[in-house]
Every structure is written in structure tokens, then in C-alpha cells.
Amino acid sequence: MASTSIKTPGIAAAIGEVFRQNKIPCLVLNAVVMLLVGSYYLVPDVAEVWNQVGEFKLKWSFAFSSASTVFAAVLLPTLVQGMMGTLPAEGRGMRVLLLSAFWGYRGMEIDLFYRFQGWLFGTGNDARTLAIKVAVDQFLMSPIWFVPTVLIAMRWADAGGSWSRTRASLDRDFWLRVCPTVMVTNWLVWIPTLALVYSLPSALQFPLFSVVMCFFILIMTLLARKAEA
């Protein structure tokens, strides 16, 4: 009898497919970021609004970074996914609660990381400083920590907070196919975006990050589910 098994695409094929499917939305998102940053430097009235946001962020510090990340990475994407009919059928409330706990922490962690980079490499927006910050962010922290932990948190939330079910899902395919394919999308969005984020004054870097994160989470969620299919 002929075999009817379905072969899992190789990593090269999976990455190529990810690039083809996501290059346009990622380019559009990068263009939006360019417009936002350009508005700060070129339009005084818009710059004043940005400065007010920056002052608000400085006032509320980590409370702002936590709350804004939960809104951008959990609440708004959940609303959009609900409208699109792509939310898991069961455990939606628990999923939102678990993801809110994770992203509330992650927002503060990233805020602290931005501050650390500013302390370590300076707050200038010259090409050398921007290149170093982007390289550390995207080629050190993202592959080692940021991207894998986000994907694990998503599986943890989908498993209703069960660590045993989450650990069982972290198989060879997760590490060798899902993580690398999501990493490609991460680079498509965040390498150019972070060059712009780090060019802003320190108080405005996290607010812009939050705006981009909202759209990126939607892209990454859909990608992760497709990669697991």
C-alpha cells in the first residue's frame, strides 16, 4: 500500500515560504514606522504630541511600559482576532489573563533593556550607535531570549497555563522549524524598525515600540499557528 504520510517542509523551504508570505505586510509596517518617526522630526505639531506621550511615559515609568504592552500585545490583537474568527474556541478568558501576565512583565523587561542599552552604548542617534544597539537586540537577545520565550508563552497560554503540556510541545520541530521561521519575520520587522526606534529620544522609544508591537503580534500569532499546522 502506498504511503499517505505528509512530509513536514524542510527548514529552508519553511523560511522561504515565511519570507514570501510576510515581506509585504512587514514592508508596509516598516513604512508606517518611517512615517511616525518622520512626523516627529519634520512636523512640529506632531512632535509636540509625541513629546507629551514621552512625558507621560517618564511619569509612569514601568507602569506605562507594562500597561501599554498588555494593550498593544494582548487586548487589541485579541479584539482583532475575535473579529477575524481566529481565536481559539475554548479558554479565551484564561488565555487573555495568562498572556496579559506575560506581556505585562515583558513590557517592563524590554523597557529596562532599552535603558540598559542607552546606559551601555549611549543615547546618540549616530549610525555606529544605532548599528550596535540593533545588532545586540536582534542577533543576540532575540534569538537567545526574546523570540523563543514569546513563542513558549503563546503555547503556555494556549495550554491553559499547563507547564506539562507546554513542555511536551517544545519538541524538535519547535526549536528547528517554528523558532527559525518566526525569527525571520522578527528580523523583517524589527531590524529596520529598531534603527528608527533607537534614533528617537529615550522617552519615546518605548511608546513607538508599543505601536509596532501591536501589529507585529498579529503577524507573529498567525505565523506561529500556520507553522504549527
TrEMBL record:
Q: Which domain of life is it from?
A: Bacteria
Regions crossing the membrane: 24-43, 63-84, 174-198, 204-224
| The entry's keywords | Membrane, Transmembrane, Transmembrane helix
Name the record gives this protein: Uncharacterized protein
* Native source organism of the sequence: Brevifollis gellanilyticus
